[in-house]
Design goal:
Blueprint lengths: L7 H10 L2 H6 L13 E7 L3 H10 L4 E2 L2 E8 L2 H10 L3 E7 L7 H12 L6 E6 L8 H6 L4 E4 L5 H39 L4 H16 L6 E6 L11 E6 L17 H13 L3 E2 L3 E6 L7 E6 L6 H32 E2 L4 E2 L1 H13 L5 E8 L2 H8 L1 H19 L4 E6 L2 E7 L5 H7 L4 E3 L2 E3 L3 E8 L6 H18 L4 E3 L2 H22 L3 E10 L5 E11 L5 E2 L1 H11 L1 H23 L5 E5 L2 H5 L3 H12 L6 E6 H6 L2 H13 L2 E7 L6 H6 L4 E4 L1 H5 L8 H13 L2 E4 L5 H10 L3 E2 L10 H12 L1
Parallel strand pairs: 1-3, 1-4, 4-5, 5-6, 19-20, 22-24, 24-25, 25-26, 26-27, 27-28, 28-29
Antiparallel strand pairs: 2-3, 7-8, 7-11, 9-10, 10-11, 12-13, 14-16, 14-19, 15-16, 17-18, 21-22, 21-29, 22-23
Helix pairs in contact: 4-5, 7-8, 7-10, 8-10, 11-15, 12-13, 16-17, 17-18, 18-20
Bound molecules: ligand C2E and magnesium ion (MG) (2 copies).
One magnesium ion (MG) binds next to loops.
Length: 753
């Protein structure tokens, strides 16, 4: 029978019929399926038909390690490749060295090892010429296991060779499989740590089991007792996860499973609480304290090896523990999504709820972020216990009022989130809820809240962004309208994003030294003498656009960059001034603008001293411009710092004078040298308002014994008017624009001519 199918064309046919399909098809109809007989696949690749026949004859009915041998036949390198593309479980290849070419056999070895990457398949080379043997290198590199001349094709010799090869093939496979299995168990265990819910767990089990046993992820069912009775027997089982051709059974009760074999196995396992491994299927049991037990049914196209059994044991134990942990996970979930103090949903849950509303495309929904004004102060002054009571009272009032109509969450310390339909949730009505005082520890306590509001109008992408927008709006309320609410607008978001982007760019520009200083001359108005310079920072963006300091200084201040930037500006100005001095073209002083944040740094004085030391500039050549608002803060430390600078010999000017609201008595006490009339008042000279304020400031300066310098002189008229009112110094476009280093040098040279 075997002989009749040996032959070129027939062999291909044989290749196609030699898979599991054929074996299943051979099963007698009506009888229960039995597990297919497992075989070792051995490929004979040889262009000599006799070799095929002789080998088959010699090995007829041989059983090696409990399995028969199934021979696959190919007559050339080409045929062999086709054969290998259909079977990836060939244990041994008996390979002729010389076939269509001298090297056809060795080429095929290369194909097996390098292209197919089969490392486990054993290769036995055979040749008709006794003198011919492959190179030693080839034997080593390609892991060739044996080399035989065809005359050695006796039954005994073949049997020894094949047995040794198959044994080593199986060994390699086992080691590989156990390594793979362990890796899967480890990774699957880890991935389950983050999964929640029995259903997710169950479908995960299907996937993992399938991968573990190397079977397709189908034909697997997990069943679970809905409500176990005391004895466990009458429990109602149902399918909670299914895959592949069992998918349609999802959610059906165990009794609805048509296949009695599966039904019985599942029931048996769930009642006996032990896994059942049969020839053609396995039903695994997963126990769980406090959880309902679970069983997984898996069709097995082949018998499981010993190693598979061991892996499954580890798998079941591992996932039994996971199942146990499920209740813990559920508990943890409650902690993860609930504020344990107020027993309200927390920020995460609130975001999730907004996400869900967005996903359902719910229109007319409002998100209100509510923050208790001055809560931190209340906490500090009246104590945390009082603060806690207040929080509880606020939560209760909101809950009582809205019930289940509005989703209420505690978003952070004293901030609550509300999500509801705009017909129910009205920020103004929320505000009114707080008009009644709270009774805390028998005293009435008034609470004022500020709110940020976002309307879900179909543009929002996710809950986290919505909450971010709500807090942007809330911040606005806190600054401009405490005690009320602000509705978030797209422009607000854009402004914030623009600012964030610009801040990022500014940091980069500073780091890559793309900022530079411009210098604007100051002159004596009477004779035009060049007496000073003001250093002004400049930023040319990467696309060449100049960004005005009024736009980026506040960003630098906000992000704290102003400290490092200010130090750099100060030092650069000092070095420039020193250079001018050395060239003999310097005016009397250089003025540098200083921000409040810089000034407040504890090491500010030291920074100034170092800049002077390093540049070699005298303190008398330096003037620092501070703003009027800074002097207004009037803290002792500011006064102290100013006195200290003054003592060093540094001059102090108050910039933009007249725009703040400095108290005169206070001004009198400050160690200041100069007032700078803000350019807005110089500008007014041309308007009906006239030079009044500029005049006032000039007189004030005189009374206090201070010099006065006018900013923003743009015309001869300004100049003349200022001269007339007794203002002695000035700067402005009419005199000179702020200039780069080189422009300044040219400007000075031009004047000197
Ligand atoms: P500021 O200190 O009052 O600087 C004077 C501003 O008036 C400069 O604007 C200058 O270019 C501008 N200016 C001068 N003459 C005229 C004129 O005739 N007409 C008009 N319309 N404007 C004139 P700039 O450079 O845009 O700086 C604006 C503000 O940014 C400065 O006002 C200052 O508060 C701040 N700033 C500039 N550089 C620095 C710096 O290095 N550090 C700090 N902290 N702030 C700076
Ligand atoms: Mg200035
Ligand atoms: Mg100014």
């Amino acid at each position: 029978m075997t002989l009749s199918i040996v032959g070129g064309s027939v062999s291909v046919n044989m290749i196609e019929r030699s898979g599991d399909d054929m074996m299943f098809n051979d099963e007698p109809v009506g009888e229960p399926k039995s597990v297919p007989r497992r075989v070792w696949r051995v490929a004979i690749v040889d262009d000599d038909q006799d070799v095929h026949q002789a080998t088959k004859f010699a090995m007829l009915d041989v059983v090696i390690l409990d399995r028969c041998i199934e021979f696959l036949h190919a007559y050339s390198n080409q045929e062999a490749r086709l054969l290998f593309s259909k079977h990836d479980d060939i244990a041994v290849v008996l390979l002729d060295v010389v076939m269509e070419t001298e090297n056809a056999g060795l080429e095929l070895v290369g194909h097996i090892r390098d292209t197919l990457k089969w490392r486990d398949t054993r290769i036995i080379l055979r040749t008709g010429q006794p003198g011919y043997a492959p190179e030693e290198d080839a034997i080593r590199d390609y892991d060739i296991n044996d080399y035989k001349t065809k005359s050695e094709l006796t039954r005994k010799k073949l049997l020894t060779t094949l047995t040794a090869s198959i044994r080593s093939y199986e060994l390699i496979r086992t080691i590989d499989a156990s390594r793979r299995g362990l890796r899967q168990i480890i990774t699957s265990g880890a991935s389950f740590a983050v999964e929640h819910g029995v259903q997710t767990f169950a479908s995960g089990v299907i996937t993992q089991l399938a991968a573990l046993c190397g079977v397709p992820s189908e034909g697997l069912i997990c069943a679970q007792a809905d409500s176990p009775t005391a004895d466990g027997k009458a429990a109602n089982f149902s399918v909670i996860a299914s895959a592949g051709h069992y998918s349609n059974l999802m959610n059906s009760s165990i009794d609805q499973i048509a296949d009695q074999r599966i039904r019985d196995s599942l029931k048996h396992v769930l009642v006996s609480r032990a896994s059942l491994i049969e020839d053609n299927a396995m039903t695994l049991y997963f126990s769980g304290h406090g959880n309902r037990p679970m069983a997984a049914f898996v069709d097995l196209p082949h018998q499981l090896s010993e190693i598979d059994h061991q892996l499954l044991e580890v798998f079941c134990a591992n996932f039994g523990v996971c199942l146990d942990n499920l209740s813990l996970v559920t508990q943890l979930q409650s902690h993860a999504y609930r504020d344990q103090f107020l027993m309200l949903p927390n920020r995460l849950k609130f975001i999730g709820e907004i996400d869900a509303a967005i996903a359902r495309n719910e229109q007319n929904r409002l998100v209100v972020l509510l923050d208790i004004d001055d809560f931190a102060e209340t906490n500090d002054v009246l104590g945390h216990v009082y603060g806690d009571l207040l929080l509880k009272a606020v939560a209760l009032r909101l809950q009582d009022h809205y019930g289940s109509d509005v989703f209420l969450a505690r978003v952070s310390g004293d901030a609550f989130g509300l999500l509801g339909d705009s017909s129910v949730l009205d920020p103004e009505a929320v505000r009114l809820l707080f008009m009644e005082p709270f009774e805390i520890e028998s005293t009435a306590h008034m609470v004022v809240v500020s709110m940020g509001v976002v309307a879900l109008d179909g543009f929002e992408s996710n809950g986290a962004d919505v909450l971010k927008n709500a807090s942007i709006a809330l911040k606005r309320t806190k600054v401009h309208q405490r005690g009320y609410h602000t509705v978030f607008t797209r422009e607000m978001g854009m402004q914030i994003r623009e600012r964030a982007k610009l801040t990022q760019h500014l940091h980069k520009a500073f780091d890559s030294e793309r900022l530079f200083l411009a210098y604007q001359p100051q002159i004596e108005l009477s004779g035009g003498k060049f007496i000073g310079l003001e250093a002004l920072v400049r930023w040319r963006n990467e696309d060449g656009k100049m960004i005005p300091p009024m736009d980026f200084i506040p960003l630098a201040e906000h992000s704290g960059l102003i400290v490092a930037m200010g130090t750099w500006i100060l030092r650069t100005a000092c070095f420039t001034m020193k250079k001018l001095k050395q060239a003999g073209t310097a005016p009397e002083r250089i003025a540098v603008n200083v921000s409040m944040m810089q000034f407040r740094q504890p090491d500010f004085i030291a920074v100034v001293e170092t800049a002077l030391q390093d540049s070699g500039l005298s303190p008398h050549d330096l003037e620092l411009e501070i703003t009027e608002s800074m002097t207004m803060l009037g803290t002792a430390s500011i006064q102290e710092s100013l006195a200290c600078l003054k003592q060093l010999g540094i001059q102090i000017a108050i910039d933009d004078f007249g725009t703040g609201f400095s108290s005169l008595s206070y001004l009198d006490k400050l160690p200041v040298d100069r007032l700078k009339i803000d350019r807005a008042f110089v500008n007014q000279i041309d308007t009906p308002e006239g030079p009044r304020i500029a005049e006032l400031i000039t007189q004030l300066g005189k009374k206090l014994g201070l010099k006065v310098v006018a900013e923003g002189i743009e015309s001869r008229t300004h100049w003349d008017a200022l001269l007339e009112m007794g203002c002695t110094e000035g700067q402005g476009f009419y005199i000179a624009h702020p200039m780069s280093d080189a422009e300044l040098t040219a400007w000075i040279a031009n004047r000197n001519q």
